[in-house]
Request: fold
Amino acid sequence: MDKLEKRSRTSFGPPAGKKTAVFVDDINMPGVEEYGAQPPIELLRLFLDKKGLFERADWVWKDVVESTIIACAAPPSGGRADITKRMSRRFNMLCLPKSSSETLKVIFSSILKGFLNTGFPDKVKNLEDAAISSTIDIFAKIQE
Reply:
């Protein structure tokens, strides 16, 4: 609420001419309760469904306008749960397959080349391939 401006008595939104995006990482991390509920996700669903939140301190409903929620989640396992259908229906889902090491090399190379071409000496530029290979190796070990 600190980032939003008061529009009317119960309406809040971003500064004029702007929109607010709230990014929620690992949305499927909250544990599932005995009856299948995930209270943090239910609060986000309430925000998406009703376009606002209830302020318990003031006992008043606060509408939030010109805002959206962007979320990401890893596949369910190891402490991550499935997101309920009531919540997932509110999102456009993008599922990304695992990238091969060659694909990662192309991605990392294009990013690192652009960065190194901003004025680094040749000694540092020559470390590009080693830095990329070691990054991909470390990433593969972490995935294991």
About this structure: The helical segments are 39-50, 85-88, 101-116, 122-125, 128-143. Residues 101-116 form the longest helix (16 residues). The longest strand covers residues 20-24.
